Amino acid sequence: MLTKRIIPCLDIKDGRTVKGINFVDLRDAGDPVELAKQYADIGADELVFLDISATLEARATTLDMVLRVAEQVNIPFTVGGGISSIKDVDALLQCGADKVSINSSAVKRPELVNELSDKFGSQCVVVAIDAKEIDGQWKVHLAGGSIPTEIDLFEWAKEVEKRGAGEILFTSMNHDGTKNGFANKALARLSEELNIPIIASGGAGNTQHFIDTFKEGKSDAALAASVFHFGEIPISNLKKELKENNIEVRL
């Protein structure tokens, strides 16, 4: 059985780690380089680093910070934010990233998924999908959740899998920062309809939420931010509890 992964997410804005609720009301959560090192030391399986204002500000992810984080960690490290070309990905990989996460740029030009997968391999390409459930329909949103579309979450996920995405990082905007649990029904459907790993994001508030998303949501990995940044759920304790609930994790 494949082990389930625990992934802290560093949302970066103006050089600091931030965290909000439903994608707004951001508050400072510390220095990303220091946090990255702490997480690598205490047993996180991977890290995700998202430059959350890069797309809105129409600029590339800050390479200097990626380099500094990569120097401090020995676990897989995914970078996202403002990535729109092979050149962008090449620069990030050279700075030490292991994978890249693309979101708005893939929706605007779906061929980008094919291009990156062909050039760097599908294992390098994570397609992040921010979606909101509106009247029972999950709709994709762009630019850090600020631009709604009529694109269906499940159809879009299937399309990017066909185009060569290696993983899906699905964030439920309804659940983000609420600490009320993950969108397990939607996650389970994604897991059933796709053949690539699904990373759950949005809603972690306690250990039971992680147990639920692995069992009910059939998620392959669970990503969280504030509960880790502010010490509410120590990763070592979380993994022990997951193991006690017969969920395979790397201790």
TrEMBL record:
EC number, as in UniProt: 4.3.2.10
Question: Which pathway?
Answer: Amino-acid biosynthesis; L-histidine biosynthesis; L-histidine from 5-phospho-alpha-D-ribose 1-diphosphate: step 5/9
Query: What superkingdom heads the lineage?
Result: Bacteria
Enzyme superclass (EC): lyase
Record-stated family: Belongs to the HisA/HisF family.
Describe, as the record does, how this protein assembles with itself and its partners: Heterodimer of HisH and HisF.
NCBIfam families (UniProt xref): hisF
Q: What is this protein called?
A: Imidazole glycerol phosphate synthase subunit HisF
